[in-house]
Write a structure and sequence with these properties.
It is built from 3 helices and 6 strands; from the N terminus they run βαββαβββα. It is an alpha+beta fold. The chain has a domain at 19-99: RRM (RNA recognition motif) domain (Alpha-Beta Plaits). It has a 4-stranded antiparallel sheet with strand order 2-3-1-6, covered by helices on one side. Strands 4-5 form a two-stranded antiparallel ribbon.
Length: 146
């Protein structure tokens, strides 16, 4: 299907975002599955250009899914047809075309400006924040003496 401006349409009839044609999502992976295991299995469908097996940030353990990119679109479709519901490591794999990640509102992650260094007069000699004690007249005198 072609849109008015000649570019590919970004949504298909189901309302989903455009798919990445040569990349497949492999779900329901065993946690002990490695990139080599996936590569050995899925290379029967075609030439693999990239395998991404994300790990949990806290534990470092694999998250149970992967993204595999093939060199051609028909190879990705062959992998889906051949290996969807295939058993690997005691689990049935779920393989389908990967979809683009939706854009976050606000353009993604926001970075804050670095804070300015603290004013040295805000701290007393022990490094603790200075608390205003005494009268205003005494504070003014203390400021003048610095």
């Amino acid at each position: 299907m072609v849109c008015r401006n000649g570019a590919d349409c970004w949504k298909n009839l189901t309302g989903r975002s455009k798919t990445i044609s040569a990349k497949v999502f492999v779900g329901n992976l065993n946690y002990e599955t490695t990139e080599d295991d996936l590569s050995a299995l899925l290379s029967e469908a075609g030439e693999i250009t990239d395998i991404f097996l994300p790990a949990d940030r806290a534990t470092g353990r694999p998250r149970g899914f992967a993204f595999v990119e093939f060199s051609k679109e028909y190879e990705a479709n062959a992998a889906i047809a051949k290996f969807n519901d295939f058993e690997l490591g005691g689990r049935r794999l779920k393989i389908n075309l990967a979809e683009d990640r939706p854009q976050r509102p606000g353009g993604g992650r926001q970075f804050r400006e670095p804070m300015a260094p603290p004013d040295p007069h805000m701290f007393n000699s022990k490094g603790k924040p200075f608390k205003n004690k005494g009268s205003r007249r005494g504070l003014r005198r203390r400021k003048r003496s610095l």
